[in-house]
Each structure stands twice: as C-alpha cells, then as structure tokens.
Amino acid sequence: MVLSLQGRFARDKDATTTRKVKSFFFQAEEYHTDLKGDKGNGKRLRGRVSLDILAFELSKLVFGTKRMAPGDCCRPPPPSKYEGQGVEEKWHGVDVYTTGSPSSSSAVVFICDIYGWEVPQTRYLADRLAASGHYVVVADFLDKDYFCSPNPDDEYEGLPEWLDKHSKPQAIDRASRIIETLRGKGVKKIGVMGNCWGAKITISLLFGDKGVDAAVMNHPSFLTIDEVKAVKVPLAIHAARIDFVTTPEMAKEYEDILASSLQPETRTNSYVKIFEGADHGWTTRYDDNDETACQRAEEAHADTIAFFHKHLHPPAADTVTEI
C-alpha cells in the first residue's frame, strides 16, 4: 500500500505535504528493514508506528481528509429496521452471531468492519449466506469497542490509536479457534469473508494450512503486495470505484498478482471486481431507503453467494432459500 500511495502522490504539487510524506516513507523503510518483511504488521516496534497506521496516515496526507469521498472507511451505517434471523452465542469467550443450520456441510466465518458485528446490514448479509446453505458465524473480534470518531468534523480522528489497540495477532488467533471449532462440528468446507478491517485479518488466514477453503473480501483495507502474493486459496476481492483506502489502481494490482499466482487453485479461481459508483463500505453501509445503494449492495451479495456456492458446496448442494 505504501508504494501504491507513493505513486499516487507523485501527482501532488504541495511542497509541505511532500516533506511530510517523505518522512513517512523513511519510517516505512526503517520499519521493513527492522522486521525483515511484514511479520510485525499490526504491532509497534521500538516506538515506531505500525504499518497499518503508517498507511492510514499516508492516505490522509496524500488525499486530505476534506478531499476523501463521502462515506470512506469510518462513517457508521444508517439505521436499518432489519432484524437478524440468527442467535447470539459465546464461543471461546467471544460473542458470536450464528445463522443457518449447524449441520450444514459448509460454513462461513464473517469478520466484519470497524463498526462491529451488531449492524443490521451486516447481519442481513450473514442471513443471506445462511439462506444459500451455509452455517455462518459473525464474531465480535472488537469486544464491542467499535470505532467512532470523537470529532464530528473529522470522522477519522482517533483511528490510528484505535487500530493500534486492536491487535491483529489476537484477532487471527480468535478466528483460527472458531475455524477449529467448526471443523470439530464436522464442517467439511469453510470460507472466510472479511470487510474493510476484517479483510486484513482474513488475508492472514489464507497463507498456509489454516483450514480455509475460499475467501471473499469486500472493500478491503491495508493489504500488502506480499500478503496477496502469499494467498493459497480461491479469493474474490470486491473493490469500490470510489475508495482512497484500496484504490481501483491497487485493486488492479491485486488482480494481476492473483492471476499470476504459483498456486493453481488461486490463479484459476480468484477474481477482482471493481463496483462502479460504489464507495468504501457499500456492501454493509447502505441506506435501506436508497434504491440504488441497495441494488449495488445486492449485486455484491449475489457475487459473494455465488463464489462461496462454487467453492464450498459439494456437488449435491444444499437447498437455497429466500429470506
């Protein structure tokens, strides 16, 4: 992401911002030298900022908070009257929303974005997946500490500190335990879906033998080139045309990497789709009263359902029901 931002910044003429960005790039180079790769993502190292926070700060410098598209990244979704059809439980001390049949042969672990697992639009998408035959688990990896800026004039204020507080390794460990639990219940195929912040957790589950068979990322945040190169399972990335976090140029770069993957399953079964007119968060942050926004979200939902149906269901697929 840092390199992609550097290329985008080359078109900016502001000298003061140039000096600031060069300083951030210097920190990024030192950070990578010390870590010898991306192993320290999501942590602090001898007082240096994490790479996730660094990328966010660079984004603000390059694009400016006043120039970001409305709704980018941090604005919570509008109210919705939708009531989830699942139940709330506790797994390994973590609150989860489960929906669908526990006896299904396939399951999806849904790692949601920074405004949490209780959002009605998030639970609607989970219920849609359950209606297509999967057992779906939406976990609260944020311990009810959802992000909300304290400054009404700057929806991003406090985000770097919030990102630093929510440990990526802890979330990965919790997700891995949920996957192990599902395997213990006899689930044969498991998919993972990550939205925004959740995509950063999701991608770390796709490198090796983590028990994941396929994954979907909606409007992902803070992915690195090395992470995308390391993916070993079929992956669908749904990106927005209007997004400063994962720009269309970055999404195209991810597409090229997946298309040239050394893993046959990844190379032949992955795709990247850019949704025209969509901005970051559109799949679960739409207004129920906005017909165009709902249609755009439904398109992404349908693509997600089709992808998981292809890669998780056995030939004699479970019956799809309407909700």
Order of helices and strands: HHHEEEHEHHEHEHEHHEH
Q: Radius of gyration, rounded? A: 19 Å
End-to-end Cα distance, whole Å, is: 38 Å
Strand % is 15-25%
Tell me the count of domains.
2
Number of helices: 11
Any key phrases for this structure?
single chain, Rossmann fold, 2 domains, disordered N terminus, alpha/beta, globular, 323 residues, 8-stranded mixed beta sheet
Please outline what is shown here.
The chain has 323 residues and is of the alpha/beta class. The chain has eleven helices and eight strands. The protein has two domains: 2-66, no CATH class; 87-312, Alpha/Beta hydrolase fold, catalytic domain (Rossmann fold, 3-Layer(aba) Sandwich).
Task: Give your account of this protein's structure.
- It comes from Riccia fluitans.
- InterPro entries: AB_hydrolase_fold (IPR029058), Dienelactn_hydro (IPR002925).
- This is Dienelactone hydrolase domain-containing protein.
- Residues 96-311 form the Dienelactone hydrolase domain.
- The longest helix has 22 residues, at 291-312.
- Helix 8 (225-229) links the parallel strand 6 (214-218) and strand 7 (235-242).
- Helix content is 40%, strand content 16%.
- It has an 8-stranded mixed sheet with strand order 1-2-4-3-5-6-7-8, sandwiched between helices.
- It has helices at 2-9, 15-35, 51-63, 120-131, 159-165, 168-184, 197-203, 225-229, 248-259, 264-269, 291-312; strands at 87-91, 94-99, 106-111, 135-139, 189-195, 214-218, 235-242, 271-279.
- It has 2 domains: 2-66, no CATH class; 87-312, Alpha/Beta hydrolase fold, catalytic domain (Rossmann fold, 3-Layer(aba) Sandwich), CATH 3.40.50.1820.
- The chain is built from 11 helices and 8 strands.
- Helix 1 packs parallel to helix 3 (51-63), helix 2 (15-35) runs antiparallel to helix 3 and helix 3 runs antiparallel to helix 5.
- The radius of gyration is 19 Å and the shape is globular.
- It has 323 residues and is of the alpha/beta class.
